[in-house]
Amino acid sequence: MATEIKVEIIQRQTVKPSSPTPHHLRNYKLSILDQMALQTYIPILLFYPNAADATRNNVMATSERCQHLMQSLAKTLTHFYPLAGRIKGDAVIECNDDGAEFVESRVKCSLSEIFEHPDAEMLRRFLPVEPESREAGTGTLLLVQVNLFECGGMAIGFSISHKFGDATTLSTFINCWTAAAHVQSNMLMLPKFGAASLFSPLNFSNSEPLPSVEVDKEKFITRRFVFEASKIAALQSKVTSTVVPKPTRVEAASALIWKCKIEASSRSSSNTLGTSLIRPSVFSHSVNVRKMAVPPLPENLVGNLVDFSTTNYSHSGENSTVIDLKGLVAKIRGGLEEKKERYAAVVVIDSNEAWQNMKWYINLMKNDDIDKFICSSWCRFPFYEADFGWGKPSWVSYVAVAINNVTVLMDKRDDNGIEAWVTLSQENMALFESNKELLEYASLNPRVTN
Question: Member of which family (predicted)?
Answer without folding.
Answer: Belongs to the plant acyltransferase family.
